[in-house]
Amino acid sequence: MWKKVIKSYDYSLIAAFFLLCLFGLMMIYSASSVTAVQRYEVASDYFYNKQKIHVIIASLFFIGAAIFPYKAYKNSKFLLIIVAGIAGLLGMLMFFGTISNNARSWIRLGGASLQPSEFAKLVIIIYMSAIYAKKQKYINSFNKGVTPPVILLVLLCMLIAAEPDFGTAFIIFLIGCTIIVSSGMKFKSMWKLVVLGMMIALILSPLILFKKDQIFTEEKLSRITGYLDPFEHEKGDGYHLVNSYLAIGSGGVTGTGLGQSVQKLGYLPEPHTDFIMAVIAEELGVLGVVIVIGGLSFIVLKGVYTSIKCSDPFGAMLSVGISSMIAIQSSINLGGVVGLLPITGVTLPFISYGGTSLILLAISLGILVNISMFVKYEKLYKK
């Protein structure tokens, strides 16, 4: 049996994970070496060494998730534990959260840091997929089938937006929407949700106006002005985006060469996190861009293909949710780097520096690999 299981794994998907992580590790070393010394006053390989540990830990989680049967996640007790756990972590932010980039979104214990909102993405994917899979018989019943998962989705988004972290809240909301669309729900039921959402927004509008100074802070508004006309504000709000343009334009087709970026020398404030794609484009040109976008697209398309082939509604929705998470996060990051979207601080999956994000993505992709294995196993050996 184990030989059949091993043969059923999609090794191209496994290879894509490790290759993207290793490529990201290489680019983090290149992008962060100067910033580490000049801005943070640490060794040039500081972020590289930390990310190396992150990659090792994430790889262990990836292997564990790829082996563990995904159907066990549908267990009611497990769902209760993860929902209660993420709600507790988000609640802890109010008392123990550390402010970073004007958002209370980190819990720091000793030398370790945890961003609970990252894990909320996977929690909402598992929870909504499990509940809608169990409620297939009455998926279009508004009270029994449609509403319960949406309530949790809205509450989580509100908790994360209150940090305030609107970028992550928006990503989670979009992920939830993709699961709703793929749940088998009829258009009429989805339209009722849209109307309900508009009514809730209307009810909350006075509160938003009352708290507008806290919600629409000067920094958040500066991201909009910098996005709309970066060159008009090139020494202020548009500084990040202008230097991203310069990095991408300098790279051209062939790039300036690995390690030869000029914009990472203090011009791009976050060259190893939010704007790592700009450094990749500058140093490696079109080839570097194709490697990253090609690898991410391959994972997303594999996830969509797996969802189509999966006969289990839970596995199909899990695949859609994981694929959409990677696609949405990648699109928001890349859109910010090239000026198609406002800069939100969202990192590039598998490439940018960050432990919490990488571990979350590793677990998610491991689950996708496990679903893919079950789909192939049933196709080959259960005819």
TrEMBL record:
<dbReference type="InterPro" id="IPR018365">
    <property type="entry name" value="Cell_cycle_FtsW-rel_CS"/>
</dbReference>
<dbReference type="GO" id="GO:0032153">
    <property type="term" value="C:cell division site"/>
</dbReference>
<keyword id="KW-0132">Cell division</keyword>
<dbReference type="Pfam" id="PF01098">
    <property type="entry name" value="FTSW_RODA_SPOVE"/>
</dbReference>
<keyword id="KW-1133">Transmembrane helix</keyword>
<dbReference type="GO" id="GO:0051301">
    <property type="term" value="P:cell division"/>
</dbReference>
<keyword id="KW-0472">Membrane</keyword>
<feature type="transmembrane region" description="Helical">
    <location>
        <begin position="168"/>
        <end position="186"/>
    </location>
</feature>
<protein>
    <recommendedName>
        <fullName>Probable peptidoglycan glycosyltransferase FtsW</fullName>
        <ecNumber>2.4.99.28</ecNumber>
    </recommendedName>
</protein>
<keyword id="KW-0573">Peptidoglycan synthesis</keyword>
<feature type="transmembrane region" description="Helical">
    <location>
        <begin position="313"/>
        <end position="332"/>
    </location>
</feature>
<dbReference type="GO" id="GO:0015648">
    <property type="term" value="F:lipid-linked peptidoglycan transporter activity"/>
</dbReference>
<dbReference type="InterPro" id="IPR001182">
    <property type="entry name" value="FtsW/RodA"/>
</dbReference>
<dbReference type="GO" id="GO:0005886">
    <property type="term" value="C:plasma membrane"/>
</dbReference>
<dbReference type="GO" id="GO:0008360">
    <property type="term" value="P:regulation of cell shape"/>
</dbReference>
<dbReference type="GO" id="GO:0008955">
    <property type="term" value="F:peptidoglycan glycosyltransferase activity"/>
</dbReference>
<keyword id="KW-0328">Glycosyltransferase</keyword>
<feature type="transmembrane region" description="Helical">
    <location>
        <begin position="78"/>
        <end position="99"/>
    </location>
</feature>
<keyword id="KW-0812">Transmembrane</keyword>
<feature type="transmembrane region" description="Helical">
    <location>
        <begin position="193"/>
        <end position="210"/>
    </location>
</feature>
<keyword id="KW-0133">Cell shape</keyword>
<dbReference type="GO" id="GO:0009252">
    <property type="term" value="P:peptidoglycan biosynthetic process"/>
</dbReference>
<comment type="function">
    <text>Peptidoglycan polymerase that is essential for cell division.</text>
</comment>
<comment type="similarity">
    <text>Belongs to the SEDS family. FtsW subfamily.</text>
</comment>
<feature type="transmembrane region" description="Helical">
    <location>
        <begin position="119"/>
        <end position="134"/>
    </location>
</feature>
<feature type="transmembrane region" description="Helical">
    <location>
        <begin position="52"/>
        <end position="71"/>
    </location>
</feature>
<keyword id="KW-0808">Transferase</keyword>
<keyword id="KW-0131">Cell cycle</keyword>
<feature type="transmembrane region" description="Helical">
    <location>
        <begin position="352"/>
        <end position="375"/>
    </location>
</feature>
<feature type="transmembrane region" description="Helical">
    <location>
        <begin position="146"/>
        <end position="162"/>
    </location>
</feature>
<feature type="transmembrane region" description="Helical">
    <location>
        <begin position="275"/>
        <end position="301"/>
    </location>
</feature>
